[in-house]
Amino acid sequence: MAKWKPEVLVVDDEPGNLELLRQILQDKYEMSFATDGQKALTVAQKAKPDIVLLDVMMPEMDGLEVCRRLKNNPVTAKIPVIFVTAMGDVDNEEKGFEAGGVDYITKPVSAPIVHARIRLHLELYNQNRVLEERVEQRTRQLRHAYETIKNLSLDTIYRLARAAEFKDEDTGAHILRMSNYSAAVARKMGFEEKTVESILYAAPLHDIGKIGTPDRILLKPGKLDAAEWEIMKQHTINGGIILEGSEKGFIKLGEIIALTHHERWDGTGYPKGLKGNAIPKIARIIAIADVFDALTTKRPYKEAFPIEKSFAIIKEGRGSQFDPAVVDAFFAVKNDVLAIKEKYKDENQSLLYKITSTSA
User: What is the DSSP letter of 35?
Assistant: First the structure.
């Protein structure tokens, strides 16, 4: 098999100069040629040579302009360019370096100098390519490590959330559905995709405080009395306490959600009676997702409501229980909501958290 040789693109409008450089370089390098600037750009784009020897003084498009265009093209930007110039053009050296050239060779050319300069800049070019590949490889490794850590963290969050739901056999895939409902609404409302993902992963923590709710209240088949209701409402405070202290990330967002997802737009919610825009926007989104899923699924104290009745109840709460803008966004993604509900049926769920944003 023939040994691979670097490719040199030689650009000059004088055929005699091209022939001279061909004779000097053909034994060690693959060669391509161009006799004007436009042809040089075309050849460089197609052949992607390892180095370019570029005449400065050419008609129509001089070497400086050719170099600038090569450097502005992502395909050819990193290819080293050596200007080949007559002695009288040396005063253009500064302009050449500003255009992106790496070196100058003066005419009449000397074979040893040509070889030395090409060898030097090819070595530098190859070193840069190796370094870039190592950086890219390391970046891929770090990205993979980050995704692994994130997935492990999310798995922990899910299992923690499952602990809060574990006593209630009828909730099943509640945390999967309501988190995906929330993500769908947030996306419709214009949240950045990174924030939508954070909502998807933090929403399952909304009821983590139920870990501290007594079974006799959490699983009571009938309506709670006033004293029991006060105890039930404490799950928001308990959730905030469990999750407090994290400065950022899913846990911090989960703390906000756990503490405020039962606040109401009209100020009659709990635990703080926040009203309107004083309620964090994410909590206003979670509130609708949580209520809708509670309406459409069986609980110890009720049977599941029909879908259309559940939608009607959400609509009736517009401006009282729920933020009107969030209600509007919820109904704008009604088809997505129904698809999520179908995808995450209780009987189809395992203990593993199927992280997904395709339906959100």
Answer: S
